[in-house]
Amino acid sequence: MAVWQISSGPRSGPYLDQFIKSGVALVGPGDTGPWRPSNPLPEWPQVRLFASEVQEGDIVLLRSGNSTVHAIGIVASGYLYLDQFDDVNGWDLQHARRVRWFRLPEDHHLDGVVFMGSSFGRVMQQDIISYAERFVNSPPRDWQLASLPPLPRPRPDLDEVPEDLREIIAVARDLGGALYWDAESFGPPPSEREMVTHLVVPFLRALGWAEEQVALEWRNTDVALFRSLPRTAGSCCLVVEAKRLGEGLDLALEQAKEYVRVTGSECDVLVTNGIRYRLHTRENGYSEAAYANLCRLRQPATELFARLRR
Fold first, then answer.
1. pLDDT digits (tens, 9 = 90+) for 201-210
2. Which residues contact 246 (CB under 8 A, 6 or more apart)?
3. Where in the chain are all domains bearing CATH 3.90.1570.30?
């Protein structure tokens, strides 16, 4: 029986509740497809470990930061690729294992800096292994045999791509679906600026925004949209914060909100990595209003297209 640790996400653990509610452990990146030994796409060490070395019955510590454990679980399945987790707070985490979790009544803080580096890995410190084994061998133990919670249903695919978006979506799928991830064929991943140039601006232009309404690096924003000229804080209606491919969108929201505050605009926020787009509206306290993944279009994407059209 091995002991593993898995991160519940950056900062305050943005997908902690999702793991426990759905009875899963998830790692990414997953947009490149299911892991398999012959997969020609780049292999991330944490994905290989998670898919090929974890065994049913192993112990998993669900943690955040370098030393905090929120839950302890028992692995309850082999490796799975679950497409319904293609966006978990902006992260592609389709590599999955079913896990029976026990949420600790209080977070357990281990002494010192314990967890370093990868979002998933094997625990080698003997004192942490002993702690985990004592926990699972102590009462109550009924949670270890409880029924697994149901998985969320996959969102239905979008049947037909809008005609005016077909070209840019085809480009996104060609680039983001495989080429960008293939270090041998492409080289290092594209920069944030490349994603803005090759995908974000063409996507906004396809939605009807004219050149003069789209500003790059306006008052330090990556992209800003203006409902009318002149381009001022009063006419700015959307601030776009872009991240590199493979970075979670949740990391971009707070930065974008700060840009809104500094510029003095009263506008919505779009966070993106060029492939994924998540709209947050000011009127609802910047809660998520719409989402689309251009490489994996689901029916809810029509809401994002409608809200962003000029």
1. 999 999 999 9
2. 29, 189, 273
3. 163-308
Say what the pLDDT of residue 92 is. Answer: 86
Confidence of residue 11 (pLDDT cuts 50, 70, 90): low
**Under a CB-based contact definition with an 8 Å cutoff, are residues 18 and 79 in contact?**
no
Q: What is the pLDDT of residues 214-262, one digit of tens each?
A: 999 999 999 999 999 999 999 999 999 999 887 777 778 888 999 898 8
Cα 310 from Cα 307, distance rounded (Å): 8
- Note whether 307 and 296 are within 8 A (CB): no
Query: What is the CATH architecture of 163-308?
Result: Alpha-Beta Complex (3.90)
**pTM score, whole prediction:** 0.79
CATH 3.10.590.10 fits 3-145, yes or no: yes
Q: Over range 180-199, report the average pLDDT.
A: 87
- Measured CA to CA, the distance from residue 38 to residue 159 in angstroms comes to 31
Say which DSSP state 88 is in. Answer: B
Start-end ranges of CATH 3.10.590.10 in the chain? 3-145
The encoded tokens of residue 11 equal 């900062």
Residue type, 172: A
Residue-wise DSSP of 185-249: HH-SPPPHHHHIIIIIHHHHHHTT--GGGEEESGGG-SEEEESSSS--TTTEEEEEEE--TTS-T
Handedness of CA 108, 111, 112, 114 (dihedral sign): negative
What residues are paired with 120 via a beta bridge? 6
- Residue type at 193? R
Strands 236-242 vs 268-272: parallel, antiparallel or unpaired: parallel
Judge whether 25 and 99 are in contact, CB under 8 Å: yes
Find the length of the chain.
Answer: 310
Structure tokens at 308: 């962003």
Residue listed under structure tokens 């029916």: 299
